[in-house]
Amino acid sequence: MAEWIGIGRRARRCYGFDEIALAPGTKTVNPEEVDTSFELDAKLFRVPIIAAAMDGVVDVRFAVTMSKLGGLAVLNLEGIQTRYEKPSEVLEKIAKASTEEATRLVQALYKEPIKEKLISKRIEQIKKEKAIAIVSCTPANAQNFGKLAVAAGVDFFVVQSTVTTVRHISKAYKSLDIKKFCQDIKVPVLIGNCVTYGVTLELLSTGVAAVLVGIGPGASCTTRGVLGIGVPQVTSTIDAAAARDYYFKHTGKYIPIICDGGMRTGGDICKAFASGADAVMIGSSFARAKEAPGLGFHWGMATSNVNLPRGTRIKVGTIGSLEEILFGPAKVDDGSENLMGALATSMGSLGVATIKEMHDVEIIIAPSIQTEGKIFQAVQHVGMGK
């Protein structure tokens, strides 16, 4: 429902995680008996929370650990891991840089050329540990990097850009034919990012294995400030999920929707699933793990842009191991640990047994949900007042 915002111009109201809540139904389920698994190209994953392809989050060790815990961690093929033989030394420089120096340093460090041998090496290192290898790059490098990744044994390939469309117009270069790319490559392809029903529907028809939803909601992303582009995650996920359901109804093919970014707590993750997501992708929460290569810092993929950076380095700290962040026990009071426990408990309280059943729970508009009755938490900066 659109509202007038000026003469001859209407706009519709869109919603983010802080503006809604989930209403319990008429039954509850034992949280230990709910199924939180996520299916991607006929492969079942215990953890439906994917680690984002950001250099402060995922390296080889992190990817291996995440895989063994039952989830996926995406390695960025255009980042530090494929530019430097010894990435840990470079990551330490970024972590030690002052706030004033950080952006310029990242820009300089990312000028180092990507080395194809390191693309193969990183994937082979992950596979050597019998872990699932999933990697990401931009459309411009997809053809070349895709071949290298497949040869190295990659399991899934992600093509990701700030805004992705099937129809990209350019006179300067030949754009990626997404449909042909999906047909030619020998592994499942995930595509992102988008935020609208129409674009999601077009992407679903290209043969992708999943679609990533979200523009600018990430903790370290500044796209919304720099470009003014974005749709709040609840609305964009609901719209994308509607396209997924329409496509399934008319083709019989169910293609997952992955809500990418904007989730800080277990509660946000639960709201993403209620909005229609089949899985979620997060960065900042995982950047706080002991295994994360960013040493307590997190920065966006677009930070390194030479002319127009659309991300910033933020300090997130280190709160525990990856296993603790996923499965607990939680040692903090803000909902950032034991994310899987939060999801299972929420599902049980809502009376649903599977992720797909989460799509049908009641969502209410509740702008006071974060503040109602929380004055002491806010004043003391604890719990929901942080």
Brief sketch in words of this structure:
The protein has a single domain, classed as TIM Barrel (Alpha-Beta Barrel). It has 16 helices and 16 strands.
Describe the structure.
With 386 residues, this protein is of the alpha/beta class. It has one domain (2-385): TIM Barrel (Alpha-Beta Barrel). The protein is 36% helix and 16% strand. The strands form five sheets. An eight-stranded parallel β-sheet has the order 6-13-12-11-10-9-8-7. A two-stranded antiparallel ribbon has the order 1-2. A two-stranded antiparallel sheet has the order 3-16. Helix 1 runs parallel beside helix 5 (116-128) and helix 11 (266-274) crosses helix 14. The longest helix has 19 residues, at 233-251. The mean pLDDT is 91.
Q: How are the SSEs ordered, and which strands pair?
A:
Layout: E1 2-6, E2 9-12, E3 20-23, E4 38-40, E5 43-45, E6 49-51, H1 60-68, E7 74-76, H2 80-83, H3 87-96, H4 99-109, H5 116-128, E8 134-137, H6 139-152, E9 156-160, H7 178-184, E10 189-194, H8 197-204, E11 210-213, H9 223-226, H10 233-251, E12 257-260, H11 266-274, E13 279-282, H12 284-287, E14 297-298, E15 314-315, H13 322-327, H14 339-350, H15 355-358, E16 362-365, H16 375-380
Parallel strand pairs: 6-13, 7-8, 8-9, 9-10, 10-11, 11-12, 12-13
Antiparallel strand pairs: 1-2, 3-16, 4-5, 14-15
Q: Which value, in Å, is the CA radius of gyration? A: 20 Å
Shape: globular
CATH homologous superfamily assignment:
Aldolase class I
Oligomer: single chain
What is the level-2 CATH architecture name?
Alpha-Beta Barrel
Give the low-confidence spans.
none
Topology-level CATH name = TIM Barrel
SS content category: alpha/beta
Distance between the termini: 34 Å
